[in-house]
Prior knowledge:
This is DUF2171 domain-containing protein. By secondary structure, this protein is mainly β. It has a domain at 4-67: SH3 type barrels, CATH 2.30.30.240. 7% of the residues lie in helices and 33% in strands. The chain has one helix spanning 80-86, and strands at 12-14, 20-28, 31-34, 44-47, 51-55, 58-61, 95-97, 103-105. A 6-stranded mixed β-sheet has the order 4-3-2-1-6-5, with no helix packed on it. The chain starts with 11 loop residues before the first strand and ends with a strand. The model is unreliable at 76-87 (pLDDT under 50).
Amino acid sequence: MFKPADVQRGMTVRDRDGEALGGIVAVDPRGFTIGKGRVFGKEYPVRFSDVADLDGDDVYLRRDLAHLQGAVLAEGGADEDAAEETVKPERPVAYTHDLTGALVPME
């Protein structure tokens, strides 16, 4: 079990399968932000409830890359054209607090 206070800027975020997604550029009480890079065309927010575990300077998420909403290979990615077809337009999301006090999107 990890503690949110252990998540720091500069750590590497990995998906469930160990694929490096990028580095943490910001941390706040709700979660952290993965910086723009190979996988994300813009900064990508992550809730602490999406974290499975910490291992040294690596943060492991509960999902794999294919199941991260908005994750696409940015410029130069091998499957860029296919990824563009699956990107859905962003829309505002309403948030609420779960039983642990974490901020989560309302469904």
